[in-house]
Amino acid sequence: MYKLKLKRARRQKRPLLNLDWQPNFRWRSPALVACIPLALIIVAVWGVAAQAQDTPLTPEAVQGALNTIWVLVAAILVIFMNAGFGMLETGFCRQKNAVNILSKNLIVFALATLAYWAIGFSFMFGAEGNSFIGLGGFFLSSENPETYNLAPFPEGLPIPVFFLFQAAFAGTAATIVSGAVAERIKFVDFLIFSLLLTGISYPITGHWVWGNGLLSNIAFLGKTVDGQEVTVAFKDFAGSTVVHAVGGWAALMGAAFLGPRIGKYAADGTPQALPGHNMGFAMLGCLILWVGWFGFNPGSQLAADEAVPYIAVTTNLAAAAGGIAATITAWLAIGKPDLSMIINGILAGLVSITAPCASVSYFFAVVIGAIGGVIVVYSVLFLDRIKIDDPVGATSVHLVCGTWGTLALGLFDKELGLLTGHGVTQLIAQIIGILTVGGFTVLLSSIFWLALKQTLGIRVPEEEELKGLDIGEHGMEAYSGFLKE
Amino acid sequence: MYKLKLKRARRQKRPLLNLDWQPNFRWRSPALVACIPLALIIVAVWGVAAQAQDTPLTPEAVQGALNTIWVLVAAILVIFMNAGFGMLETGFCRQKNAVNILSKNLIVFALATLAYWAIGFSFMFGAEGNSFIGLGGFFLSSENPETYNLAPFPEGLPIPVFFLFQAAFAGTAATIVSGAVAERIKFVDFLIFSLLLTGISYPITGHWVWGNGLLSNIAFLGKTVDGQEVTVAFKDFAGSTVVHAVGGWAALMGAAFLGPRIGKYAADGTPQALPGHNMGFAMLGCLILWVGWFGFNPGSQLAADEAVPYIAVTTNLAAAAGGIAATITAWLAIGKPDLSMIINGILAGLVSITAPCASVSYFFAVVIGAIGGVIVVYSVLFLDRIKIDDPVGATSVHLVCGTWGTLALGLFDKELGLLTGHGVTQLIAQIIGILTVGGFTVLLSSIFWLALKQTLGIRVPEEEELKGLDIGEHGMEAYSGFLKE
Amino acid sequence: MYKLKLKRARRQKRPLLNLDWQPNFRWRSPALVACIPLALIIVAVWGVAAQAQDTPLTPEAVQGALNTIWVLVAAILVIFMNAGFGMLETGFCRQKNAVNILSKNLIVFALATLAYWAIGFSFMFGAEGNSFIGLGGFFLSSENPETYNLAPFPEGLPIPVFFLFQAAFAGTAATIVSGAVAERIKFVDFLIFSLLLTGISYPITGHWVWGNGLLSNIAFLGKTVDGQEVTVAFKDFAGSTVVHAVGGWAALMGAAFLGPRIGKYAADGTPQALPGHNMGFAMLGCLILWVGWFGFNPGSQLAADEAVPYIAVTTNLAAAAGGIAATITAWLAIGKPDLSMIINGILAGLVSITAPCASVSYFFAVVIGAIGGVIVVYSVLFLDRIKIDDPVGATSVHLVCGTWGTLALGLFDKELGLLTGHGVTQLIAQIIGILTVGGFTVLLSSIFWLALKQTLGIRVPEEEELKGLDIGEHGMEAYSGFLKE
User: Fold this and answer.
1) Do the beta carbons of residue C330 and residue A103 sit within 8 Å?
2) Which band of pLDDT confidence, cut at 50, 70 and 90, is reported for residue C270?
3) Which residues on A lie below 8 Å from C291 (Cβ)?
4) Which of C69, C149, C279, C308 should be substituted to probe chain A, the one whose Cβ sees the most A Cβ atoms within 10 Å?
5) Contacting residues of B for C30, CB less than 8 Å apart
6) Termini Cα distance of chain B
7) Distance (Å, whole) CA B402 – CA C289
8) DSSP string of A246-262?
9) Fewer C-beta within 10 Å: chain A N or C terminus?
10) What whole-number distance in Å separates Cα of residue C46 and Cα of residue A391?
């Protein structure tokens, strides 16, 4: 399709000096002479081929190449979010567990990549499957778009770039779990759970929504307030539910099965603050995530069109509103503008706008983000009180605000929202989607966690937890020799 | 305009199973039957619509989409600079104030986003205004390019992406202030000042230069040395003055009104070194800023054309020259290659080339950057001596080098520079612009700072300053439990 | 070529109010009147010019602009790798040398930029040279593509963006050295060596492979197992040898000439662990490098075509496989999943896939990365034993895995690999390339290191090494006042 690549390839082959290597080595062999006409023929054939390929360089082909590059850039931004989660979670945890958290957040994307490549992508998008699960094209073995349920996707978007973007999303779901189970989970259990989540559970529920599965096949017919009939299905543009709530449910179950960290609750049950050890890392992580979300949301358009900058602006407004709302809420509720609440407020805004980013007004983007920022503060306080120990607030940010964002689409969607005057149909579809995806994820991740608990045990020994997982699990310290002798 | 999006939308609506939700719930209702022809009609209509929209996919449309994506990527890079400023300023300050600086640098972009969205963008580009201030289209309420003074801007560049790029710039101006006022300003005052700067002051002076205001409407007619007549106006391609000097002036006034930190000057007036607590953060911040500048300068072209890589190269050469010049200068002047001087030298090179990056030769880009790198070292030493306490050198980097870069355009511009043989006209235009923008910013930010000082007070109590703002303002530490018990 | 830029330019010139600056200043001068028709003529001429330039906006031109933007984005990602190397190496070294390492990794890209701009780019691609070295177009003095040996490169790719991409590569080669010589080299020697490497040595060997030099001019004619004749030359798509092994050889020679750090070996010769001081920095560095590699490898396609996402996926799979393989290997060999081994395993996978990323199957990408991840663990242990003290494992990652990746192309290349059934010819070509480039780099960098050793001395005094290079070389600490008084 592109002339440029051919020319580059041609250069590699142009033989100026030829050596006949097999079976024996001779400089200036007769093969040299034989080769000249051969080379000329090759060049001529390539020239014609290049010509033939030049002709159809249409605007559509260039737009396809632009879509490809944009989705690749978006995928790179989402992959960069691994650094964001790594810094955020490490910063929010204690120094003695830093190596463990860093290791988990680093290896999790490697595991997600391989699991999603081997089976996850096929379970999610394989065209041979059914409404429940996709099948076929394992190990990305086919470049034929028909192998995967991509028919409704943009023409000309190559499978590899779509795979990379989706693999980055799968990795995000897994990395959300990392924070909630931090400071007490065995390293090996986290590795296995990550493989199961990104290889099996996340792809199945993802298939329902994005792979022409269950939830995209169930459509609802409703009436708007003015009597007009509308047909709707569960909508989750960039994954408030599909990615964030799924990761959040898996995280919640993990935190619940693990139980709270030693020292998190006083004898009388009062939650104790176990403050993070590096706010610089946490703030850096937050900003990397903010930047990464410009791949996450606008990239989900899967095309370089005029919707992309619109989505970027709603995303940014919601992040800003979430951060400011959380700052004010924390100031009023706790008495000080706590930095960890500012950080979680921004993330809450981002998670909240993820589902509705493409279909709400700027004003409602601000409202959605701001409500997310308020919710996250109270959710963190509430989970603390009901003894779910989530060291970094992952459940509050990703599950609670992911659910809020999914509902918000049903409330504020320009064309289908309840509060924009289009009836309750879409909102009900959203609730059904939230319950279906959530229920299945809770079920499957409970099975995974329980199986791990029964076989390997999921929690490190008490002595190791007290001393820190860095020495116990990894045999090293995060800040060795930091205090000069 | 693009077929792809329509197809995606279609998928969402394709009803395979229909539910009549309102007023009552019935599976397999008659509505299902009624819906089939409706759905077919919808599909058919969309097909035609898609066809109709396909037809005009011209190279111009694809170029427009490419411009959009490029400016979006550039905006993302500029937004990433918030992480750079955050790391840089935190690293350059003391540990006891780290949470405060991180909080300021994180929330400032949220504040800038909302303030610039509500009023700033309209004050800067609103078409209903006059030479002094723009008006109309508040809250980004219009997608009509004529609402904003964008007529001379690239056709096909959507308003949202232009807004995001400009909002990122506004955030940069505000974040510059953060460093200069660090370690002694009350958190709430910084929040309010940021809103005022990004909502009012920055947009007004920005309007003068980039919004068809005062300075872009005043043109000068001069003669070059060879007698040719040229018409020039104040030129500031990417904002050496509009962004950096404006932020720098506001920073300088803040530092002046606040007075130096306790301990900065000995009893005899000798400046004392108060070294930063994390050089790793500072260096990381510098490199993030370097990378972000590839959005700042080349993105200001606002189109994906052949000027973009040229600007990227001049930007990179100036940064390199600034860093090396500052290293050598510091080595000679202080005796050692001080890391903070290397960092500030690179930033000095970047700020210096921001105005002239598009219109000077590679060789002069190196000269401009190198001179910036020398200037910044002596400026830091000079400000210290006159008792302006700027903990991170923001005034030296952004105000002094921003001014130098703006003048440098008048000296080295390929077509209008004094030293390239085109007379003094452009240089005088530059001086007028520097004075006008600077004067107004000094005036307005003085009013802001004074009003805050009179009402809320701008400086934390002495005891809090000594103990650190982290506990006083935020009730937390940056490195809690870092020293293992 | 593009209308947009012209329109922007026009705005700058539109004179509403004119001042005659030279020789004397007069408001509302007669020049104003004279200027109106002039302005009208200018506008009219520009209109025609814009029209004339609009006409030829072909899909090819837009594709050219897209290629430019993509290669620029890739260059930015590669430049961001400097932050990755900086964080990685600083984290892996001891606190007392942190400022020194940060300074080296920051200034090295500045030095590489200027050296490569002045002479390196011409030595590598200058068309006036010969098979050994390129010549002409020093200081990027020509925008004529024929000045540089770029004929086989994509049409329409501007020289500046190609230069920036290549300069970023040169910087990478130099920054690799930084880690291996850390904690004992004099700052000034590192600066000089970096200039020599990026200005002379790297460009010469780069010329042989990528600049139509020696190795691209020697082609080999061989037979595949089925008797078909093929013509091959040394292939290194994105620089496993050209960049990584070259940097690795220079690093190895530096480490050898410097000798091990004080305390690295016990009296009986047993290697001692000198653990790094900040694993958070190291992990962040690793993820930045991972992300940067999406510029390094896919960007080397030098065009925005369908090969780009394919390369991104092979790159990502190899990184994931390398990380997991190293984790398992370390777990088995050392007993714990050491974080520094996970990090080096990911980098090993990335370096290994750099040569073959465009021409191997997904499956073999995983194999190549995984073998890289195993090799790197044993290489680190081996080098320790033979008393090559490389504090960050740069030699193992870049030299050993770079060489492995170059060989892997000869083994697994889809069309030319030994194990894919195409005979040994390509593998032999790879070996010849490895030996030629490696031999020359060893020779030249030995000369550089020896010359420096004889003149300036390359190692800091023992007392300074014990106390830390931060005070000795830079007069400052990395974490000043970190321990609150």
Assistant:
1) no
2) very high
3) 76, 79-80, 83
4) C279
5) none
6) 63
7) 32
8) HHHHHHHHHHHHH-PPT
9) C
10) 63
Residues of A within 8 A of B58 (CB-CB) are 59
Interchain CB distance below 8 Å, C220 and A57: no
Alpha carbons B141 and A130: distance in angstroms, whole number:
44
CA distance A474 to A99: 7
Q: Scanning every residue of chain B, which has its alpha carbon at the shortest distance from the alpha carbon of C481? A: B277
**Chain C contact partners (≥3 CB pairs within 8 A):** A, B
And the tokens for A146?
């028909």
Contact B83 A316 (CB under 8 A): no
B219 sits in which H/E element: strand B218-223
Q: Give the residue carrying structure tokens 């509403």.
A: C16
pLDDT tens, position by position, B133-179:
999 999 999 878 788 887 556 667 899 999 999 999 999 999 999 99
Confidence at B237, pLDDT banded by 50, 70, 90: very high
Indicate the average pLDDT of chain C: 88
Length of chain C counted residue by residue: 485
Please name the chains neighbouring B, where neighbouring means 3+ C-beta pairs under 8 angstroms.
A, C
Name the helix (H) or strand (E) containing B294: helix B279-299
pTM (2 decimals)?
Answer: 0.90
A 10 A CB-CB count for C268 gives 5
**Separation of CA A286 from chain center:** 15
Amino acid identity for residue B43 in this structure: V
**Which chain C residues are within 8 Å of B277, Cβ to Cβ?**
479-482
From the CA atom positions of chain A, what is the Rg in Å? 26
Bridge-based pairing state of the strands A17-20 and C218-223: parallel
Tell me the one-letter amino acid at C134. G
- What is the rounded CA–CA span in Å between residue A311 and residue A306? 9
C474 phi and psi angles, rounded to 5 deg: -125, -10
CB under 8 Å to A30, separation ≥6 — which residues? Answer: none
Q: How many Cβ contacts (< 8 angstroms) between chains B and C? A: 244
Q: Looking at this protein, which amino acid is placed at residue A161?
A: V
* Per-residue model confidence as pLDDT tens digits over A207-230: 999 998 999 877 777 766 566 777
- The shares of helix, strand and coil residues in chain A, as percent rounded to the nearest 5, are 70, 5, 25
DSSP state of A145: G
CB contact under 8 A, A113 and C308: no
Q: Calculate how close chain A gets to C407, using CA atoms only, in Å.
A: 17
> B67-103: string of b/e by CB count within 10 Å (b at 16+)?
bbbbbbbbbbbbbbbbbbbbbbbbbbbbbbbbbbbbb
In whole angstroms, give the CA distance from residue A211 to residue A213: 5
Element (H, E) at A386: none
Q: Do B94 and C481 touch (CB under 8 A)?
A: yes
Question: Which ipTM did the prediction report?
Answer: 0.89
Cis peptide upstream of residue C23 (ω within 30 degrees of 0): yes
Length of chain A: 485
Distance from CA of A258 to the nearest CA of B (A): 24
Q: Residues A369, A424: contact at Cβ < 8 Å?
A: no
In what order do the strands lie in the sheet containing B229-232?
A: B229-232, B218-223, C17-20
Tokens 């920055």, residue?
B202
Task: Cite the DSSP H helix spans in A55-132.
Answer: 59-92, 98-115, 121-125
Q: Which of A2, A109, A110 sits opposite C305 (nearest CB)?
A: A2
The structure tokens 């961001």 sit at C80
Length of chain B: 485
Rounded distance between C-alpha atoms, residue B129 and residue C115, angstroms:
50
Identify which of B38, B6, B13 has the alpha carbon closest to the alpha carbon of residue A219: B13
Rounded to an integer, what distance in angstroms lies between the CA atom of residue A208 and that of residue A130?
A: 10
Structural domains in chain C plus CATH codes: 63-474 (1.10.3430.10)
